[in-house]
Automatic annotation (TrEMBL):
<dbReference type="GO" id="GO:0003924">
    <property type="term" value="F:GTPase activity"/>
</dbReference>
<dbReference type="InterPro" id="IPR004130">
    <property type="entry name" value="Gpn"/>
</dbReference>
<keyword id="KW-0342">GTP-binding</keyword>
<protein>
    <recommendedName>
        <fullName>GTPase</fullName>
    </recommendedName>
</protein>
<keyword id="KW-0547">Nucleotide-binding</keyword>
<comment type="similarity">
    <text>Belongs to the GPN-loop GTPase family.</text>
</comment>
<dbReference type="InterPro" id="IPR027417">
    <property type="entry name" value="P-loop_NTPase"/>
</dbReference>
<dbReference type="Pfam" id="PF03029">
    <property type="entry name" value="ATP_bind_1"/>
</dbReference>
<keyword id="KW-0378">Hydrolase</keyword>
<dbReference type="GO" id="GO:0005525">
    <property type="term" value="F:GTP binding"/>
</dbReference>
Length: 252
């Protein structure tokens, strides 16, 4: 069954670059067939050749003129149009013979995740396959403090609750940082983080408790550290995606 991977994340975190590097890795190392969807109507440049490009269906400049909208308003409007047309946009994908469908989402994560489009997208994709996961791409620069790790875990859990699919947090641009506070293995990381935030009063205690609970229910126990640019860590990312989508592996 086809595996479907949705790349989510804040603006500039490297969603498109990782979509590109991961597709390249899947083709070169597994000989897999890939179908790539660009769902960002406002992007100027993407580093891969999309098989389905939302820009062919939605003209952001026309919408902007027609409704008199600025840069944020036009994106919100575009998301709502895509959400309403979702069934038709993805209709033909059921006839496509491929191993992986990779979906690159809009730059501004909030216009995607806080609107109907995120839910409708997952509903459509679940009609195509039971193997749908999201990769939550974060810039390594975000992780400077122990609290940042708690933030990532909580955000991933929130995304999981919102979308109803497994979410794999990924730290990208690892080539740009000298060292990270975390090692990428959840058990060790949570121990390190809890050790460092536990004594920060009531707030630290609350975060520690939340992390402990998240950990008890977590399926994937690693946070891959990758560089889409330098092609680092892509195999580890794939291993985690594979284990989640084929439900065949021990994730510890
Ligand atoms: P938007 O959709 O426009 O918000 O961006 P995005 O999340 O798709 O990020 P994109 O892939 O466009 O990358 C943003 C910038 O980060 C580009 O200049 C990339 O070249 C750079 N970039 C992406 N991944 C990496 C990486 O692993 N290392 C480094 N050094 N730069 C990266």
């Amino acid at each position: 069954m086809v595996a479907i991977i949705i790349f989510l994340g804040p603006a500039g975190s490297g969603k498109s670059s990782l979509t590109s590097s991961y597709s390249r890795w899947l083709r070169e190392f597994l000989g897999a067939r890939i179908f790539i969807v660009n769902l960002d109507p406002a992007t100027e440049f993407i580093p891969y050749k999309p098989d389905l490009d939302i820009r062919d269906l939605i003209d952001i400049h026309r919408i902007s003129k027609e409704f008199g909208l600025g840069p944020n308003g036009v994106l919100v409007k575009a998301m709502d149009i895509i959400a309403n047309e979702m069934i038709y946009i993805f209709e033909d994908l059921k006839y496509i013979d491929t191993d992986f469908i990779l979906i690159d989402t809009p730059g501004q994560m909030e216009v995607f995740i806080f609107r109907d489009i995120a839910i409708k997208l997952v509903n459509e994709l679940k009609k195509l396959s039971n193997n749908v996961v999201a990769v939550f791409v974060l810039d390594a620069d975000v992780i400077k403090r122990y609290e940042d790790y708690a933030f990532i875990s909580i955000m991933s859990t929130a995304l999981q609750a919102r979308m109803g699919i497994d979410v794999v947090p990924v730290i990208n641009k690892i080539d740009l940082v000298q060292s990270l506070l975390i090692v990428g293995d959840t058990i060790s990381d949570i121990d390190i983080v809890i050790e460092n935030i536990r004594n920060k009063g009531l707030y630290g205690e609350m975060l520690s408790n939340i992390l402990n609970i998240i950990w008890q229910y977590a399926k994937a126990t690693r946070v891959p550290r990758v560089s889409a640019k330098e092609f680092i860590g892509i195999e580890e990312l794939h291993r985690i995606i594979h284990e989640l989508t084929c439900s065949c592996g021990d994730l510890t």
